[in-house]
Amino acid sequence: MTDSPGTDPRLRRLNAWRGATKVLSRLAAEHRIGDRLAGLVADAGGVYDLDDWVDMYGDGVVAELERRTARLLGKEAAVFFPTGTMAQQIALRCWAGRTGNRTVALHPRSHPETDERGAFSAVSGLRTVHPTTRPRLPTAGEARVLDEPFGALMLELPLREAGFALPAWGELTDVADAARERGAIVHVDGARIRECTAHFGRGVEEIAALADSVYVSFYKSLGGMSGAALAGPRWLAGEARAWRHRYGGDLFHQYPAVLSALLGLEKELPRLPEYVAHAKVVAAALAQGFEAAGVPWFRVHPGVPHIHRFQVWLPYGHDVLTEAAVRLAEETGTTRFHRWFPAPGEPPGLAFTEVTVAAEGLEWTAEDVKAAVTAFTDRLPGPA
User: Fold this and answer.
1) Nearest to 105 by CA among 191, 207, 184
2) Which of 42, 195, 274, 358 has the most CB atoms at less than 10 Å from its CB?
3) What distance in Å separates the CA atoms of residue 189 and residue 109, rounded to the nearest whole number?
């Protein structure tokens, strides 16, 4: 990006995006501390009795969030964790103790393989194998012919690195059945499972019923400050609490994060289907806008989004595209895209970004989207 000497590129981006008045969604990083605290004080009393005592090591309000999460997912119990990384390591570690097999079958581009610095093996003594390298979840056939035994099949719903992609409902039930035929359990990385209901045409409890255990996030899509939960059988919750203590996850106080999670369940969860529906409108308008602008090549993936998030790919360097996005926000008060990234494994000069449609984006019409695309591509070099 072309910044003046002494300008912090990150602060420039945040100031531009925070100052924009027309956005599809707000990044969590755009909020200031005082704003988050003021919002929590103003709204948290509607979801929990603020005259209750603060939690200590997971009681009180933390236990209440666990009960609500278990009920929502149709599981016997749930355990709150400070991070999803810790929750999933402990879940798979506990299951390995039950099955006697420490091998986890999962996609090579799932979160534990791409974003956790090899924690499964380095911290939890687990080993991973990959039923497929295709940009989608494994099929039942691939699970059946995997040439070594595995104790757990881990499914990320949706698979973020593949464009937040989901299988068809029948494909999902088939691969879960195939894993169990081989004596394995099924664990779902459900950080965004609550956004999958429209695609599958099923409620979140029915989706979660396919899995022996499920991890959910409270800050992804729900707007919480942090935190995650692991839901499953009561025995798993008991073992997970013991391992949570060993991993250093028993925090003294957690009420700010937990109250924000309860607010997300109350305010954002019911609106997710609305966001997913409008993401389809936005994605279609983006494609039309790029075509009308004469961009030499583009990809909106999936063309019809499976959740309220999807990818956009363009044939420019990521720094060029991010600069155009920042300039658009600075000069027009409109945020059409946030940061762009180099495409992994692809030739230089190709970049992608993730688009999220949330409450702020519901006011965008298709014509608004196409106009913003024109304004964005006008700030790109070359024929676009």
Assistant:
1) 184
2) 195
3) 13
Q: How many CA atoms lie within 13 A of 60 on its CB side?
A: 18
pTM of the model: 0.95
Map residue 208 onto helix, strand or coil: helix
Residues 6+ apart with CB under 8 A from 134: none
Q: Tell me phi and psi for residue 175, to 5 degrees.
A: -70, -35
Write phi, then psi, for 240 (nearest 5 degrees). Answer: -65, -35
- Count the Cβ atoms, other than its own, within 10 Å of residue 331: 11
- pLDDT, one tens digit per residue, over 328-360 is 999 999 999 999 999 887 778 999 999 999 999
CA distance to 191, 292, 324, per residue, from 289 (Å) = 31, 5, 16
- Which residue in 336, 281, 331 sits closest to 314, CA to CA? 336
Give the span between the Cα atoms of 359 and 363, in whole angstroms: 8
Structure token pair of residue 155: 């499914």
Per-residue pLDDT of the chain (384 residues; tens, 9 = 90+): 455 545 799 999 999 999 999 999 999 999 999 999 999 999 999 999 999 999 999 999 999 999 999 999 999 999 999 999 999 999 999 999 999 999 999 999 999 999 999 999 999 999 999 999 999 999 999 999 999 999 999 999 999 999 999 999 999 999 999 999 999 999 999 999 999 999 999 999 999 999 999 999 999 999 999 999 999 999 999 999 999 999 999 999 999 999 999 999 999 999 999 999 999 999 999 999 999 999 999 999 999 999 999 999 999 999 999 999 999 999 999 999 999 999 887 778 999 999 999 999 999 999 999 999 999 999 999 754
Q: Give the pair of three-digit tokens for residue 382.
A: 């070359």
Q: From CA 249, how far away is CA 86, in angstroms rounded?
A: 8
Q: List Cβ neighbours of 224 (8 Å cut-off, separation of 6 or more).
A: 217, 218, 257, 260, 261, 263, 264
Tokens describing residue 167: 């299988």
The amino acid at residue 265 is L
CA distance 226 to 81: 9
The 10 Å CB-count burial string (b at 16+, else e) for 118-149 is: eebeebbebebeebbeeeebbbbebbbebeee
